[in-house]
């Protein structure tokens, strides 16, 4: 029998959850779909989150037990939602505080809605003039760009008082998207990692016949800053299969890559013969196929289910002294690689230490070293367990769980921290949300709805240019990079990724550069483009910025492009976070926003020339539009940005933010062919 009040609340919520499950399954069995209320599940999980938040605020002595109980209830609900019942494909947020702590971007971009609206035209309510509402966003407008040096491959939301200004010049260049964008083709990306000193960046991927070979591309960032067109140093590790994990040791100039049962290291400095990537170590990590980490104490770690392996790097045998490392034999025949593939046969060095976790079923999917504390932020692997946990772990204390972070409905794919605020961590999750946590609390302080419950989010970054907290998020289905103003709780703008899904990102503080590794979803494993149609050439002269007659003068804050164009469902596209009201804006903010609107209007005075400039920019490539192609299922239309750009390949992008970027730096579209439109 439960004695504590919080235990009684948990028991009550468990009962409600059981009743919801039973009712839901009965309604499905009876095909009573009209009676199904999926939101009831979310309400139960929200109440549990409220219980944990209240307990933390009151410094309840049972807080650890309360958080654990709430996590178990959350897990039960999420498992049901994602299980055979299929309540949600992507769970709504259930751990955010209702006080405007969820940040949404309701700006519509999905180009495939055009065909849906055409199909449903007979059933859709028309405007008073008889026309159909526009399902897609209005075309790109140069007048919306805040600076003459803003890249045309960006798209801004309506002006609002951003946190950057003339007193924060670096932040202002970022918030105005003043950048040069470079890109080149890469193998299918798996992970990207930057060294702790920001001197080197590595991308591991899959290439060769049917993407069966491990591939590594290494970039020396000082050299890349001098020559952004350099496509990096490439090599093929002598592993049995494509590498799934990578980590860099800045001090020893070592690159560690791991497949399912071994880890190999390579020196990125040139050897006596002038060759880079000489092999150094081979580590045996059988049954430990999780992420790698280099600790500041000179150890390399690899996670597995229930434990982590530890090697002292300076005590390991090296290939400089031994051709073969480790005792016994290693089977190189069990591989999908070609028969002539070079697979080094060393079994590898045994670990010096094994750290057994308190929970033998705890399997780490990804982790991140928190330098100030020496702890690891860890997510549980969805593949190896049915859990959705996210914790702070002290490995030096035997894997003790320091804190559990609540609210995830999928595997966390990336953690991000910033030296400017060591008490904050950012998570990018499979449920499509990015969450910001104060590491002293278990519930998120902010939740960013990146993918609108439509896809996963693989990468998000927290940085502080000029001390201003800023978040970059990478879109998968949405195929872009968004920049979020944390203080204003708004999306500032998005950057094009050439119709490719963002798999990984890294922020280079020294060079004020955002790197992104992206995957093109419109190529098959043989590298052939699929699902393309002829591209349409935007005519920017056709579009105006005239507001709808229904739009009032005070609707200048928080409205999307659709609202500006007078679309009937403009309210749904409101970019403000939940609970915010225009009438509650401070007077000073209104005056500042009015001034920004006046500045935007001044830019529109020479509108015809602006649209002509946009068309001219798009033609400078010399490309013939009769030869251009565009993915049928692309998230954006050709007119969404100021230039028509489609990568048609897996890409490595560099967004180099500068006070005075070279506007002649232009990306050229990749080569794509027409086909029957079927994706493999």
Q: Which tags fit this structure?
A:
single chain; alpha+beta; five-stranded mixed β-sheet; 9 helices; 27% strand
Describe the structure.
By secondary structure, this protein is an alpha+beta fold. 18% of the residues lie in helices and 27% in strands. The chain is built from nine helices and 32 strands. It has a five-stranded mixed beta sheet, with no helix packed on it. Strands 2-27-26-25-24 form a five-stranded antiparallel beta sheet, with no helix packed on it. Helix 1 runs parallel beside helix 3.
Task: Show the helix and strand layout.
Layout: H1 5-29, H2 39-57, H3 63-82, E1 102-104, H4 113-119, E2 154-156, H5 169-175, E3 179-185, E4 188-194, E5 200-207, E6 213-220, H6 221-226, E7 233-235, E8 245-249, E9 254-258, E10 262-267, E11 278-284, E12 292-295, E13 299-304, E14 307-312, E15 353-356, E16 364-370, E17 375-380, E18 390-394, E19 400-404, E20 412-418, E21 421-429, E22 433-438, E23 446-449, E24 460-463, E25 470-474, E26 480-485, E27 490-496, E28 501-508, E29 513-519, E30 532-534, H7 561-564, H8 587-604, H9 607-619, E31 629-631, E32 651-657
Parallel strand pairs: 1-23
Antiparallel strand pairs: 2-27, 3-32, 4-5, 5-6, 6-7, 8-9, 9-10, 10-11, 12-13, 13-14, 14-15, 16-17, 17-18, 18-19, 20-21, 21-22, 22-23, 24-25, 25-26, 26-27, 28-29, 29-32, 30-31
Helix pairs in contact: 1-2, 1-3, 2-3
Organism: Somion occarium
InterPro entries: WD40/YVTN_repeat-like_dom_sf, WD40_repeat_dom_sf, WD40_rpt, WDR55/POC1
Keywords: Repeat, WD repeat
């Amino acid at each position: 029998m439960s004695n504590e009040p919080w235990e009684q609340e948990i028991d009550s919520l468990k009962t409600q959850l059981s009743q919801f499950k039973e009712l839901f399954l009965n309604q499905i069995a009876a095909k009573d779909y009209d009676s199904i209320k999926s939101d009831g599940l979310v309400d139960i999980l929200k109440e549990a989150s409220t219980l944990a938040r209240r307990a933390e605020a009151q410094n309840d002595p049972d807080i650890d037990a309360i958080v654990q109980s709430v996590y178990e209830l959350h897990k039960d609900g999420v498992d049901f939602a994602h299980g055979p019942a299929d309540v949600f494909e992507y769970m709504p947020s259930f751990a955010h505080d209702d006080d405007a702590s969820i940040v949404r971007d309701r700006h519509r971009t999905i180009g495939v809605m055009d065909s849906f609206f055409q199909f449903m035209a007979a059933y859709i309510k028309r405007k008073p003039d008889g026309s159909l509402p526009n399902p897609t966003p209005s075309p790109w407008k140069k007048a919306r760009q805040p600076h003459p040096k803003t890249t045309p491959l960006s798209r801004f939301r309506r002006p609002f008082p951003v946190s950057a200004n003339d007193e924060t010049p670096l932040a202002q260049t970022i918030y105005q998207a003043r950048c040069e964008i470079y890109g080149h083709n890469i193998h299918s990306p798996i992970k990207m990692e930057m060294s702790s000193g920001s001197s080197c960046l590595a991308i591991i991927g899959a290439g060769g016949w049917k993407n069966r070979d491990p591939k590594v591309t290494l970039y020396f960032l000082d050299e890349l800053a001098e020559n952004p067109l350099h496509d990096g140093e490439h090599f093929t590790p002598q592993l049995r299969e494509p590498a799934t994990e990578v980590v860099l040791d800045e001090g020893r100039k070592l690159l560690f890559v791991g497949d399912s049962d071994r880890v190999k290291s390579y020196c990125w400095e040139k050897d006596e013969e002038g060759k880079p990537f000489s092999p150094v170590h081979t580590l045996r990590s059988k049954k430990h196929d999780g992420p790698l980490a280099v600790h500041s104490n000179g150890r390399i770690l690899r996670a597995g289910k229930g434990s982590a392996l530890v090697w002292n790097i300076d005590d390991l045998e090296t290939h400089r002294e031994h051709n073969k490392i480790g005792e016994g034999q290693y089977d190189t025949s069990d591989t999908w690689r070609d028969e002539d593939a070079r697979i080094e046969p060393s079994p590898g060095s045994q670990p010096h230490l094994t750290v057994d976790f308190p929970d033998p079923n705890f399997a780490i999917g990804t982790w991140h070293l928190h330098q100030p504390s020496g702890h690891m932020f860890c997510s549980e692997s969805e593949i190896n367990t049915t859990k959705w946990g996210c914790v702070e772990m002290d490995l030096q204390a035997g894997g003790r769980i320091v804190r559990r972070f609540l609210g995830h409905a999928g595997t966390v794919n990336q953690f991000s921290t910033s030296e400017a605020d060591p008490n904050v961590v950012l998570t990018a999750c499979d449920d499509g949300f990015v969450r910001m946590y104060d590491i002293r609390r278990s519930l998120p302080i902010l939740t960013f709805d990146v993918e609108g419950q439509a896809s996963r989010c693989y990468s998000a970054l927290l940085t502080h240019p000029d001390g201003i907290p800023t978040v970059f998020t990478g879109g998968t289905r949405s195929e872009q990079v968004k920049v979020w103003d944390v203080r204003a709780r708004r999306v500032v703008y998005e950057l094009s990724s050439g119709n490719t899904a963002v798999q990984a990102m890294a922020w280079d503080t020294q060079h004020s550069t955002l790197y992104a590794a992206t995957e093109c979803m419109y190529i098959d494993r043989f590298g052939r483009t699929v699902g393309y149609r002829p591209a349409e050439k935007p005519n920017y002269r056709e579009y105006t910025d005239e507001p709808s007659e229904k739009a009032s003068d005070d609707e200048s804050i928080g409205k999307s492009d659709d609202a500006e164009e007078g679309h009937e469902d403009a309210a749904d596209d409101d970019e403000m976070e939940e609970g915010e009201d225009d009438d509650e804006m401070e007077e000073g903010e209104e005056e500042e926003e009015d001034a920004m609107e006046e500045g935007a209007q001044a830019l529109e005075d020479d509108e015809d020339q602006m649209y002509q400039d946009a068309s001219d920019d798009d033609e400078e490539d010399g490309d013939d539009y009769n030869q251009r192609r565009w993915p049928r299922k692309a998230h954006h239309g050709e007119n969404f940005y100021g230039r028509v750009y489609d990568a048609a390949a897996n890409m490595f992008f560099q967004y180099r933010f500068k006070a005075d970027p070279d506007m002649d730096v232009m990306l050229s579209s990749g080569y794509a062919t027409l086909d029957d439109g079927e994706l493999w």
